[in-house]
Amino acid sequence: VQLQASGGGLVQPGGSLRLSCVASRAIFSVFSGYDMGWYRQAPGKQRELVASIDTAGSTTYADSVKGRFTMSRNNSRKTVYLQMNSLNPEDTAVYYCNRPSRFLPWGRGTLVTVSS
């Protein structure tokens, strides 16, 4: 597994979670040169890109998460993060990280469940 996401869990509506995704040693040397993205796949739906970050640290967000989610990266730690605030049940999904194009093998993702 080249990309391992973690940090998911059960959270109440309005709550927050911080996801992390660390690259394996196989891509350590090239990680800082990759744009990266956070994706999610809800039950019965297609996987969607919700946030991306380029090599300079500039970010873009899907309209559904804009203003609530913040993506960041730490190249020295070969890790990208997704800070998720004001979560609602529609954010329930398995979250993955990967490149925005020229995908690496998908990891297992981390499950986020927003429910009261």
Descriptors:
4-stranded antiparallel sheet; globular; 6-stranded mixed sheet
Describe this structure as you would to a colleague.
The protein is an all-beta fold. It is 0% helix and 45% strand. It has strands at residues 3-6, 9-11, 17-23, 36-41, 48-53, 59-61, 69-74, 79-84, 93-98, 110-114. The strands form two sheets. It has a six-stranded mixed beta sheet, with no helix packed on it. A four-stranded antiparallel beta sheet has the order 1-3-8-7, with no helix packed on it. The chain is globular and about 40 Å long.
- In which order are the strands of the major sheet placed? 2-10-9-4-5-6
The overall pLDDT average reads 95
**Residues in helix, %:** under 10%
Order of helices and strands: EEEEEEEEEE
